[in-house]
Each structure stands twice: as structure tokens, then as C-alpha cells.
Amino acid sequence: MNRHSLAFKVTAIFLFLSLFSVAALNVLAYLSSRSVLQEQASANMRQVLIFRGDMLKEQMALMAQQAGSIARMETLQSAATGLRSGWNTLQKSSGDARAELRQVFVTGNPMKDREKLLKPEGPSGFYYSTHETVQADVARYLQETPFDDLLIAAPDGTVFYSYRKDQAFAENLTASPWASGSLAAAFERARTSAATLTEDSEAAASFSGLMTEAGNPEAALTFAVPVVRLGALKAIMLFHVRNSAVLSILEKGHASGSSLESTLINGAGQIFGRDGTGRFAMLGTSEPQMLTRVPDASGLDIADVDSARGTEMQRSYLRTVAFEGQRATISESLLLSEIEAGTRQIATVLLIAGLAVLAASAIATLVSMNRMLSPLARLANATGEVAKGNLDRDISDQNRKDETGVMARALESFR
To answer: Per-residue pLDDT averaged across 136-155, rounded?
Structure first.
């Protein structure tokens, strides 16, 4: 087709306008679907956050009840009295109960799992005989609970018993580096609450909040229950929450292959989630402005914040919950590429459909233009021949009733 012909120009204009229309419709469809899908994602995340927050609070309340029930067992309270008496006896006999017990149960413990050592063969005494009974009892008490350790501390903060014999065993929680950790926080709250109690039955579990312990990046949550007899604080029992207990709640419902990441942010801005080893641990700190956008813990409103995740951008949906006065912000984060995947899919489908329609329209336009404008082309050719003096040339299309027919008959009269 001659690019100077009328058919070519009409077809080109039509295709340009059609292409512009397809592009405009695709942009509008992309923006509209993007807005709808983002609102849908926000609504879905709101439901997830409500579910996750309510489940966390319910599980925390259940843990507090379990800790209180175990701590009020008469046999355990009597054992705590015996262990503390044995500690005092060791302190008098050896001069350093801490060093002796850590040597026996930690440094020199032949068991891979320290808690399996009930009664050592070498040393003897009231502490060790009591420990043998207590260790077996505590193993039963902690079964099918979210706790992996039970520690018993004296009112001055000295941990004279620990089921697992971890680093806090035989240490003083009020001294560095323990004073800034989860165990110390729960201990201090329990010691404060004990000052107003007259009977053990009134004691409730105090919660540490989400923290770390003595420089260890692993998340630490502790419940502490005071043992009060006749208005006097005898001991404080500390229940350390199993690392996987909160993580299982935090990641419940995660779909395989999704970029969804669930984390908890404490009041200090420390972010906790699954680390590279699969543990529930501190991953970093949040940006200061992030938590200022989160609604109050008493409501169900959520906030969303965009931030970087490696080389990509993510959107975090946030909701704050509170338990026993301790606030934590739940964060559900999705890569923007996943949120907008549906939008791109819709835009791709529309683009392909639009191009297909455009191609069909172009073919139909070319055929139509050729049929409509071919008589005009013949008339133009005949006019040229007549102008050259070829008056014998037949003038076709004189019978047409449109403008081409009028012009053909006019040319015939000239001829």
C-alpha cells in the first residue's frame, strides 16, 4: 500500500488511536486492579493479625495459668525449701556453693543433656539428695507444657536450682549481665508483687515481656511466680518458655512458597523472628518511625509500612497487642512483588487481549479501506488519463450512488 494514499493514512490514524486506547485502558486496568488487590491484601492481613494477636494473648494467658498451677504444688514448694537449705549448707561447708554446683552439674556433667543428671556419684549432702527427687518431679511437671526450664531463685536473686542447668544456674539475677535480661525482669516483677501478698494462693504469674538473655540473641520469655508463706517471700519460681512455642504461633498458617514473614517487635524496637538456624531470635531493630504509626494496643486497627528486604521492597502490616502490661507489635511482611503479582498478571492478560484485538482490527481496517477507497483510486486514475487527453478512456463507477458516483458522472460530462 502506498504510504501517501488515503487508505494508508486513514488506516494509520485508526491504528494509532486504537493503540492509544488499548494502552490507556491497560494503564487504567492496572491501576484499578492494583488498588483493589492492595486493599484485599490489607483486609487479609488485618484478619491474620487479629487471629495471630488473639492467639498469642490466649496462649500467654494459658502459660501464666500453667506456671501458677505448677508453682503452687506443695511438693515443689517443699522441695524449694530443701534445695535452698542445701545451698546454704554447701555455702558454709565449701565456702562457694556456686562454684561447687556449677562444677558438678555444668562443667563436669557427663551427660550431653545436663538435666538427665539426677544425683552425681562424687559429692553427697542434702542438696544432692533433694535434687535427685526434684529433678525427676520437674521433668514430669514440664511435660506437655510450653516451658523447657524451671528455675528457683532466692529472694536476693540467687538461682539455687535450674532444671536444665543453663548459664543462669547458680548465678544472681540482680547482678550483671543477668540484670538486664528476661529472667531478671520477671523476677523483679514477681518480687514486687509479692510485697502485697499474704498467702501463696494469691500469687499470680508475672511476665517478663519479649527480651533476650545476657547477650544471647535468642528470644527469651519468662513467667515468674512468688512463693509466699505467712506474708514472707520464700522463693520465686521462674518458667522459661520454650523457643519454639511462640515461633509456632507466629508462623501458623504460612503458605509454602509465600514471601510472608512474621515477626514480633518489643517495646524497645527489637525485632524477633526465625533466624538462619531456625531459632526464634532477635533479627535487628526497627526504624524509630515504624512503631509510631501503629495504632493503640486496645484496638483492632493496623498500620502498613514499606521497607527494604535485601534488594526488594516489602510491605509490613502491623498490629500492637498487650499482655500483663507488656506491649509487642506483630508484623506480617510480604514482598511487594508478591502483592502486585496478580496486578501484573491481569495487566499481561489485558495487554495480550488488546494487541490481539488491535491486530484483528488492523486487518479488518485494511480490507475495508481497500474496498471503500479502490473506486476512488480508479476515478483518480481515470481523471489523470482524461487530463492527458485520453478521452477514449472509460469512466467506471458512474452507477454508484455515493460521492464517488457523483464525481465519476461529472468526469464523464467533461469527457
So the answer is: 95
